[in-house]
Design brief:
- The chain is 17% helix and 33% strand.
- It is built from three helices and eleven strands; from the N terminus they run αβββββαβββαβββ.
- The strands form three sheets. The protein has a six-stranded mixed sheet with strand order 1-10-9-11-7-8, with helices on both faces.
Length: 180
Amino acid sequence: MVLSVFVSACSNNITTAGMGLETAPVMGNEYRLAPGDVVQVNVFRDPDLSGTYKIDRNGMITLPLLGQTPAEHATIDLLEEDLTNRLAEGYLVDPIVSIEITSYRPVFVSGEVKNPGSYTYDTSLNVFQAVTLAGGLTPRGKRNAYVIMRETHNGTKYYKANDTTPVYPGDSIYIEERLF
């Protein structure tokens, strides 16, 4: 819903000038999981409980024995601790759980690019590379005048960005139209 409002507002030539956007912060190593991310859960010495799980639109993963498990907004460490504790409550003796992210949710590029859409996230992706994936700027695209919409644990935030700004999973990048 929020993304559709963002894309709709941007496609109606509403400019971000005067919005007072702050520069996008560099994300720390405490990455928070969200719907669309895929994780590999490994339970030591128990291959039946191990597997690959996609976080659903409700922020949950469904595991054998444990059923629906909240994963949205959790870090890898917090989710490992939660699963370890839940498995220790009557299922396994001293379970050892490790988790890794196998696939991140896509990034979205819209506005004045040749091929707007969703693109596979890569850990070294910056705005210039995301724009390149989207076919580059249209002749009306305003270089180095980008807006990133990012979901945070405090809600949706909008940031100004340039070519070298890092992109994170789930980011929506909007490229403004230049005046002339």
